[in-house]
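Deliverable D5.2: sample structural annotation.
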Amino acid sequence: MSLHATIARVTDRIEKRSEDIRTRYLDRMRAAASEGPRRAHLTCGNQAHAYAAMGQDKDALVAQRAGNIGIVTAYNDMLSAHQPFEHYPDIIRATARDNGGTAQVAGGVPAMCDGVTQGQVGMELSLFSRDVIALATGVSLSHNTYDSAVYLGVCDKIVPGLVMAAATFGYIPGLFIPAGPMVSGLPNDEKAKVRQKFATGEVGRDALMQAEMASYHGPGTCTFYGTANSNQMLMEFMGLHMPGTSFVNPGTPLRKALTIAATKRALEITQLGNDYRPVCDVLDARAFVNGIVGLMATGGSTNLVLHLPAMARAAGVLLELEDFDDISSVTPLMAKVYPNGLADVNHFHAAGGLGFMIGDLLDEGLLHADVKTVAGDGLALYTQEPVLRNGELVYGPGATQTQNDKILRPSGDAFQSTGGLKQLRGNLGHGMMKVSAVAPERHIVEAPARVFHTQEAVKDAFKAGAFESDTVIVVRFQGPRSNGMPELHSLTPTLAVLQDRGLKVALVTDGRMSGASGKVPAAIHVCPEAADGGPLAKLQDGDMVRVDAVNGKITCLTKGFEDRTPVTADLSGNGHGVGRELFSVFRNAVGLASEGAGVVV
């Protein structure tokens, strides 16, 4: 089928908007590539330092006839999704050696867990960790000893930071290798019920702890469809994974086989061979449009509306919120995975998963088929399914029918005709809302505002019984300049309780919600943020506010609102403790949320 007119129009708009910056970017990448393999420019002394500890691989490294893979790893024991990466370098080195090449760990990058820092001060470093990861990867690859790179990362800020760096070193081929989701534990909806009961005092902390431990119980990505699993979807839709690799569980033979296959492919696509595939050629406007389509079709994380523009800018592509909104308007919501439904990502994968979805969207003309990927030419490669036969990895036809239409449906019978995100504009600024899990009768909320400066203050007001009628809860001074734009996910149980009591409630904030944002309407990423004198800084308790996801509006209806002087807040307490002292330069230099809240690009 020919490309859908809206997808073609949005892609053309992005390409024209990006023409100058993309041309300059590609000129830099072509110039770097023209210098040939990087190691050839190192002196003998440079190389001796780089190879000193490489033992049996020294001769191959000195000969420079085979590729040397740089491994950038986000391994640590604290992140369940990253703990399996501990032994990946051994697998990659052995595979490279068996195929005539070599591999070295180029460097490690930090990887923090939003689940650990949720509602804690450490969350104020979370968004900025993305740019730290990009910087750390830049240092890792700066030694010019690698012919290709593999990136070991899964979770929220890690993959975006790695992509930003991979694009910056876009003349080097690169593959992303995931670890896969943990096997299913306590159903996510049951965990959510316990959280809400704890918020109202119906159960104690012992019951809450038991539920949390039963849900997050082993190695691998958390099984709900939040930012981490949205990242894995994105890497397939954008052609940076080997096909079918996102949702294979850790510790399985297939998982190891896919890591071996990715290593072999990283050697095949270097400049030393006949299939040179630098990252700069994979990450074009079409790849980012495909990624946005995937985000909408799966009902993915709101955090990617921050990360995709930052990733794209690193590759010389300029994305704006209108691109997300227009693509959402024509992309059907094909999946129901928690918090948009009861299933987890393992159930989604078993029902047909990304291969089924990509095939269906290609048939409907909603994806660019003619893209370059790390696996080869054309996105149709990602409709195939990897399996083990007699211990060997082979690819065969993927699912062409859903195995469970309560979880995954074809576009012609989608859960809804449009995607999961909506752009919002009005006299309160410019933001967005995830609507895929919000009931249609809650898409418009008009109610008096209650204004807060911290999420703790909201929870205190809830405990004091302050919310007895319909309310738009405004939490301001939560943007990147204020305090690093922490997620406000710890408000979710509180707001859900109010909603379940029959109240109409909505959240309006210049901060973020979790990638698992759920059933409460939340206008987030509102900018200009309050710390920049944005309109949220003019709101007062009792102002009538309308949050309208149907028409894409976010409006204060009170007369005279726009003539007020913005209030200021004492943000001095945001500058110290838990490492916040180290990030003042980030808070001062960060860009607008609508442009990705970037610091380094």
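Annotation notes: The first strand starts at residue 68 and ends at 73. Residues 269 and 277 are 5 Å apart (CA to CA).
The annotation will be released with the project's public dataset once the embargo ends.
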